Amino acid sequence: MPDDNRLPSWQPPPEMLKPDDESGDVLSFRAIWISDIHLGTRGCQADMLLDFLRHTESDYLYLVGDIVDGWQLKKRWYWPQAHNDVVQKVLRRARKGTKVFFVCGNHDEAARPYCGLHFGGVFVTNEVVHETADGKRLLILHGDKFDAVMSCAKWLAHLGDAAYELALVLNRIFNFMRTRLGFPYWSLSAWLKHKVKNAVDHISAFEHFIVEEARHHKADGIVCGHIHHAEMRMIGDVLYCNDGDWVESCTAMVEDKEGRLSIIRWADERDQLLHASIPDEVAA
User: Fold this and answer.
1) What mean pLDDT comes out for the span 154-182?
2) Is 96 exposed, middle or buried (0-12, 13-18, 19+ CB in 10 A)?
3) pLDDT of 51 over the 70 cut
4) DSSP class of 68
5) Rounded CA gap, 183 and 114, in Å?
6) How many domains does one find in the chain?
7) Within 13 Å and on the Cβ side, how many CA atoms surround 126?
8) In this structure, is residue 186 part of a structural domain?
9) Which residue has the higher pLDDT, 172 or 254?
10) CA angle 63, 104, 241 (to 5 degrees)
11) How many C-beta atoms lie closer than 10 Å to residue 226's C-beta?
12) Parallel/antiparallel/unpaired status of strands 56-64 and 24-34
């Protein structure tokens, strides 16, 4: 796939950053997209996600699939307090007026029979269209139905899921050692995945099929998750957006009040974003 036409990195304007009594500075957006949280697994970066949610707010919040990992919860129950806190934080946003959409993924496919219903102010759906402030129509879906492995050999997807869980275990050990040595978080599992040629080819095929779906819906762009690879770029005449995940890269996609879209890599950019608008003499 062509690598040109990538969008520039985003920096918050001064008026976007405002104080909050509970959490310090809060970044205010028109819309936020997050996916592949995988609550119910040890790989879930719930604490980092909670930090992101405490320091952001939005008119729209899109949960783009694989929010709760039903596959892993069927095998063994794992639900620490931080995972419960994430759910409560989302429900609180819905109660306070944020329009929250839960887009079903393959790991939380048990929710698909409830599409079209509201639960605690959260609307459950398979796909939804978002119109940006500058008039772009974005089709939002998880993306698993465009994964050849999911479509043709679900047993292979479960096998791959087990291998992925092993990679995440190694990732936790690796980052524990980095933390002890004073280094910041870095995703070993994401690096390994994108060094494998077959994984890169798989991502390219996925992007091609999902962009065709956007054209079928006459949408200007598409927002998805599923492959745990955050990216935003033009593919032909369609804006392809993947909001990444919260087990490896800790990324989200955001829209500001003017309709500008961007990817936030919270683990890498948190301090820079929260302090971007503080004058040097105040920061000192």
Assistant:
1) 62
2) exposed
3) yes
4) B
5) 44
6) 1
7) 9
8) no
9) 254
10) 55
11) 25
12) parallel
Q: Counting runs of H as helices and runs of E as strands, what totals does the chain give?
A: 9, 13
Helix, strand, or coil (residue 178): helix
pLDDT in tens, 95-134: 999 999 999 999 999 999 999 999 999 999 999 999 999 9
How is residue 204 written in tokens? 């390219």
Residue 105 has a CB neighbour count (10 Å cut-off) of 29
Q: Could you tell me the residue range of the domain that residue 113 belongs to?
A: 14-150+194-283
Q: What is the CATH number of the domain that holds 116?
A: 3.60.21.10
- The answer to whether residue 101 sits within a structural domain is yes
pLDDT of the residue at 222? 97
Rounded to whole angstroms, how far apart are CA atoms 252 and 174? 23
Type and span of the H or E element at 31: strand 24-34
Look at residue 164 and tell me if it is in a domain. no
What CA–CA distance (Å, rounded) separates 125 from 47?
Answer: 26
Q: What is the per-residue pLDDT for 182? A: 78
| Residue 170, token pair as written in the block | 């190694």
What pTM, to 2 d.p., does this model score? 0.75
Q: How far apart are CA 257 and CA 13, in angstroms?
A: 11
Amino acid at 37: I
Which of the two residues, 214 and 204, has the higher pLDDT score? 214
Written as one letter, the residue type at 118 is H
- List, in order, residues 6 or more apart from 238 with CB less than 8 Å away: 211, 214, 215, 219, 220, 221, 222
Say if CB 261 and CB 60 are below 8 A apart.
no
Cβ atoms of 11 and 4 within 8 Å: the answer is no
What's the pLDDT at 46? 97
Residue type, 245: D
